[in-house]
Amino acid sequence: MENHKDISDNINRKSRSIYTFIICFLLVIISSLVFTHQDQQKPAPAVPSTTVEKEIPAVDAKQPEKDKAFVPKNTEPRQQEKKDKVAVPKNTRLQQQKKSITKDKEPLRKELPETNIKNQTAETDIETLEPAEKPVPKIPTSEKDASIKEDNEAADWKLFHETMGDDNGWKLIEDENGVAIYTRKTSASDIKAFRGVTEVEADFNTMVAFLVDGNSYPSYVYLCNKAKILKQKDDSDFYLYSVNVPPWPVKKRDSVAHSRWHRNAETNEVIMECIGVPKLVPEKKGLVRIPLLFVRIVVTPKSKTHVGIIFEGVADPGGLIPDCVSNFCIKQSPRSTLRNIIDKRPFEKYTGKKVSFLETPSP
To answer: N or C, fewer C-beta in 10 Å, the chain?
Structure first.
């Protein structure tokens, strides 16, 4: 019996423990369900924000409808402008623009004096609109301009006599084949003056008639290719144009010269004086105008059959030829010119020709 009681006690004890476990498990489940339901009903905690929100003013429901439709002040003129633009047609808009332009120009028109375009002269144009231009120098054509040209020539003749009148300072640099060549410095140019001296077997009158003729220059003058008398008063006074052709690569040169001849009654010498007048004739394309030219020729009767000739001068070839090169080649001009007279004897064609200003002097 006792065993049976023990067994029944054990069974009761185990059953109670099982029941207790089951009840505790159910209580735990029920409590968890209750807590979760409560958590879902609670509101979410507020999260602090870093941005500052602007407060929007509350709209009063009692305000009239006009106040509810809020329109910024700046938009009202723009809307008005749009209405005006739409209302104005294109033609009237162009007219308004023209009126505004004319209004802007009215003060300018008041400042300027009103002038008649047809009767407006060149002087008013220059005074009101453009500055006066410098006058262009004229080529001498009238008597007044001719007198100015003569005054310029008078200054050149004065310089010629100052340069060529002094007979001192000549230095002999060559004496060959009957021609003596001298040079010296002058105040007219950095290029030296040259002098060639020789004696030719010839008649005095024939030699003078030959040298006076400007058209004969190409037959004996160094590098002269062409010569033409432009204007001539008489046998003793004329203007001559000539062209010189130097060796390549030097460009061709031309010159305009005024030559005057006279006879010295005391020494029976015939003297030619020549100056360059480069502005007398316009320059020609492809030719370099010689800017400075002084030439002096003295013909002296030595005897009935011999004549002495002195050929001297100063010449600036112009262009890009350095003065040192011109001075180095300076002796070529008097040497070749005088040797052509001696060797070619072109003066023989003038035998018996008379010269108006010349009377044969006694030796």
So the answer is: N
Q: Rounded to an integer, what distance in angstroms lies between the CA atom of residue 316 and that of residue 319?
A: 9
Reply yes or no on whether the pLDDT at 128 is more than 50.
no
pLDDT digits (tens, 9 = 90+) for 97-106: 555 555 554 5
Question: Could you give the CA distance from residue 342 to residue 177 in angstroms, rounded to a whole number?
Answer: 10
pLDDT of residue 122: 41
Per-residue pLDDT tens for 230-256?
999 998 999 999 999 999 899 999 999
Taken in order 263, 350, 274, 162, the sign of the CA dihedral is: negative
Q: Which DSSP string do the residues of 288-300 spell out, in sequence order?
A: EEP-EEEEEEEEE
- Mean residue pLDDT across the chain: 76
Comparing C-alpha atoms, which of 223, 206, 260 is closest to residue 335? Answer: 223
**CA 208/CA 202 separation, integer angstroms:** 10
Angle at 294 between CA 290 and CA 295, to 5 degrees: 115
Q: Is 196 helix (H, G, I), strand (E, B) or coil?
A: strand
Task: Decide: 330 and 195 in contact? Cβ < 8 Å.
Answer: no
Where are the alpha helices (H) located in the chain, listed in sequence order?
2-41, 65-68, 75-87, 90-111, 122-128, 143-164, 204-212, 323-328, 332-344
Strand, coil or helix: 111: helix
Using alpha carbons only, what angle is made at residue 101 by residues 95 and 106, rounded to the nearest 5 degrees? 125
Q: What tokens appear for 18 in the block? A: 């099982």
Structural domains in the chain? 145-350 (3.30.530.20)
For residue range 198-233, list pLDDT tens digits in order.
999 999 999 999 999 999 999 999 999 999 999 999
Question: For residues 179 and 196, is the Cβ–Cβ distance under 8 A?
Answer: yes
3-state secondary structure of 339: helix
CA nearest to 272, candidates 285, 287, 289, 260: 260
- The reported pTM is 0.59
Q: Is 285 left (phi over 0), alpha (psi -120 to 50) or beta?
A: beta
Question: CA dist 28 to 15, 20, 21, 33, Å?
Answer: 20, 12, 11, 9
